[in-house]
Amino acid sequence: MADRGRVAVIGVGNELRGDDGAGLVVARGVREHAGCAGVDVYEESGELLRLLDSWHGCRAAVVIDAMRSGAAPVTVRRLDLSDAPLDAAIRRPASSHAVGLGDAIELARKLGRLPARVIVYAIEGGDFSFGHGLSEPVRSATRIAVAAVVAELETLTAAQCWASA
Q1: Are the beta carbons of 128 and 17 closer than 8 angstroms?
Q2: Using CB atoms within 10 A of its CB, is residue 55 exposed (0-12), middle (13-18) or buried (19+)?
Q3: Domain 7-157, classified CATH 3.40.50.300, yes or no
Q4: What is the DSSP letter of 162?
Q5: Average pLDDT of each block of 10 consecutive residues along the chain (165 residues)?
Q6: What is the domain partition of the chain in residue ranges?
């Protein structure tokens, strides 16, 4: 179980569904390239209700997932869901999750199990078909998202999180 001072970074996705694996790739990139005290990095490939356990007791959570909103596949959006629900326009499920990210966040909010800060990085996907890896535009977007998440962690933890190369 996490403690109140911790921050959870959670990459969400299914790497067997093309661009749906983007959140997992970003989580791995954050884990590989960033080292910041008080930050735990998780990957969630299954039921999104497990998010409630991953961020339980944390003061903040940064969640990365693919989205399907009609934007260009290189689009990375930062959404602060600390006080407001996910916009219905981008809440449509983009993947095979039984419960969508917006639903899991709103359930946690109603149960009083949502961290004080919830930031979502949503990467627009284009190809969610079975058996394909990330498309090249989404692969490029994951590199942008890794840098953005590391910068977010530096803000949330007031520490330098980028490991020296």
Answers
A1: yes
A2: buried
A3: no
A4: B
A5: 73 91 95 82 85 90 91 89 74 54 88 94 90 89 95 85 53
A6: 7-157
